[in-house]
Automatic annotation (TrEMBL):
This is histidine kinase. SUPFAM superfamilies: Adenine nucleotide alpha hydrolases-like (SSF52402), ATPase domain of HSP90 chaperone/DNA topoisomerase II/histidine kinase (SSF55874), Homodimeric domain of signal transducing histidine kinase (SSF47384). It catalyses: ATP + protein L-histidine = ADP + protein N-phospho-L-histidine. The chain crosses the membrane at residues 380-397, 409-437, 457-478. Its EC number is 2.7.13.3. It is a multi-pass membrane protein. Pfam families: DUF4118 (PF13493), HATPase_c (PF02518), HisKA (PF00512), KdpD (PF02702), Usp (PF00582). Keywords: ATP-binding, Kinase, Membrane, Nucleotide-binding, Phosphoprotein, Transferase, Transmembrane, Transmembrane helix, Two-component regulatory system. The keyword Amino-acid biosynthesis does not apply.
Amino acid sequence: MGRGRLRIHLGAAPGVGKTYAMLSEAQRRVERGTDCVVGFVEHYDRPRTRALLEGLEQIPRRELECRGAVLPEMDLDAVLARRPQVVLVDELAHTNVPGSRNAKRWQDVEELLAAGIDVLSTLNIQHLESLGDVVESITGVRQQETVPDEVVRRADQTELVDMTPEALRRRMAHGNVYQPDKVDAALSNYFRPGNLTALRELALLWVADRVDEYLQRYRSEHDVSAIWGSRERIVVGLTGGPEGRTLIRRAARLAEKGAGGEVLAVYIARGDGLAAASPGELAGQRTLAESLGGTFHHVVGDDVPAALLAFARAANATQIVLGSSRRKTWQYVFGPGVGATVARDSGPDLDVHIVTHEAIAKGRGLPVARGARLGRSRVAWGWAVGVAGPAVLAVLLSAFDPGLANDMLLFLSLTVAAALLGGLRPALASAAFGSLLLNYFYTPPLHAWSISNPRNIIAIVIFVAVGAAVASVVDLAARRTHQAARLRAESEILSFLAGNVLRGETGLEELLERVRQTFGMESAALLERAGDVEPWTCAGRTGTGPALERPDDADVDVPVGDHMALVLTGRVLPAEDRRVLGAFAAQAAVALDRRRLRAEADRARTLAEGNRIRTALLAAVSHDLRTPLAGIKAAVSSLRSEDVDWSPEDRAELLEGIEGGADRLDHLVGNLLDMSRLHTGTVTPLIREVDLDEVVPMALGGVPEGSVTLDVPETLPMVAVDPGLLERAMANLVENAVKYAPDGTPVLVAASALADRVEVRVVDRGPGVPDDAKDRIFEPFQRYGDAPRGAGVGLGLAVARGFTEAMGGSLNADDTPGGGLTMTLTLRAATTTMSETVTMSATETTTETRAPTATRAAPAGLAGPEPVRPAESGPVGPAEPERHSS
């Protein structure tokens, strides 16, 4: 009996149609005669889903008691006893009711698969264990019900059930996903367009990666060496020369012309590591490739064309980009070159582009790093072994005679030891001295500088030659090892600098501290001056050394242009360190320029904003403030006139006009003062823990009776706000909503808790605002549409957002399902422990038309009459059709 097959219907969010797609697949299989049963599927009273369940055999569920409630679960034993060909198991990430055999439903599915039963299941992308942190950063909700990625990766089929965010929100607004009383809260919280777009991208990318894995696995299992151009993959062959950046940019442009294009930059290094390119140049090319969305690969291979082609075919590449050869004309006698060889052997399925550049025919030499000298103590030991060693050996050999051949091998071992310790020169000295000792003590005639046997002459010559050759090879290997370690450190430093240049992440002080730590100095500073005769000033400094007034006072100084220098104190650096230090100096100058440009931009932005505010303020004063003043003056003049005998009704009407004009003036001046406080930064909120039902009713005093309906539950956690600022912000929001709401349609003010925040929504059924104008309505002196100029100066929403952000919250505008505008004010909860709040029944509160002391109903999104399934401890996830939670 083999293992069953798992098919997962994967969606980006609840409501995209995963269960519907699974049931449709089950109906098709039943029509083909497949024995298919339903192990566990929830239809949530959706007519279309319930219709697809008809005709399918359903295994009776097992009922378990939990916390005084009886909850249904899949009867795993009954399904195993029934042994169908295919079983439907909804919600793969579901947590089983305590008392079940397994804690998680995916563990039930594993048992079914092990029994040889095929399984159809559903899953949302946010329930993948590896994406928990990413989803939390997007939605603000930590998913407690997750599935290990390996379980989903082992699925035999993964079908993406996709839907655009706009279509999903329309489906929700029509009531096809949630009950009508939960739609507003869901659309304003978890199901925002930005959240849905990000989750959809996660789902698409995850499935695309799985498709690529399946393709690579298939090619490997079937030994497919031919290139399948499913998408453009462009391999860039790099030599470490200056043309590499040109090639990478050219490949990036080629990749942009095709959908899903990918750039793979590859450097082929020789296996012996003796011919190496400049690590600084390679680090820069790596950074450039990564900044353009590509990847960098380092491959070892003695046959460069063969290694490059093998890499391209293994990566299923479609194109190779190479630079024109830098060899001179006479150098072609050694072969056709890498480009010609790759083009000849590439075959018909791999295109090769030869790109021209400025270094054509200028020589093959690469800017490699110079070998570092060996340490003084090591060289001293080398000379000691190379000179004193042969003398000591000659004394020891005088006691017995092992033979000339053995004598030469012993002296040769000293030469090798001298090369390992001190390099080439001590080894050559050891070979020369040893040959003299061999001639004097061990070749006839003994104790004479002559050699009688010609064969001994040849032996000594060969000894010297072998000693010199071995010494040169050992010396080269030792130097290359030391050089490789140093260049690796340099490449890491240069890669760090190149990344910071592109991303602009490191400030000047952080960069100077990195310089000080890298070179082990006491202090590092960047000095500058305005002219040749001006004094030096310190632009940035780090460390504990003394402050320097000029570069000449430092132990190390690296000029940057004519009027700037990077200076260090602590010790004198060797010459080979100045190349990397020069890169640090250039980056420090860039960091300083970036900081000043940012400051200039901020000042320019502040001046422009101030000019705009002053211009708008003058326009407001010239019209909006003058209109109520003119009305007040006209009413007062009429009352003071002795020519007219006003009736009590007329007098009352004029007095009412005076009072209304004064109220308008007070409101306009208040908003102007609030806006000036926000722009001058003098708003200092006094944050404390407050209940919303203490503040929100106080903000409704200026609106007509019966124009607002409150829906603020008493079970909400307290919020960390400034009560005065919150009241003013809420008053402006409610006043704006009432202004645009249709007659007879009250504005809804509702609140709900989500994760560690509390959201207050002001919902109207007015004309609404287009998407492109939702941000502009929060700008100062803005009126949307054809609002009359006498309606205000357009500061209410700007003040509301400013006060909200000053308290650490946010204010955004969204569409109201069915028409209108919803203002969502997000505040920080004073406590993050919300498990008790989430599980409270919604029947403890009631709804009443706006009154300051009325009790209010639970917000949309809390658990309704349907049972709440137990979940793990911690914050509950987003409101989903499968699990009702806040």
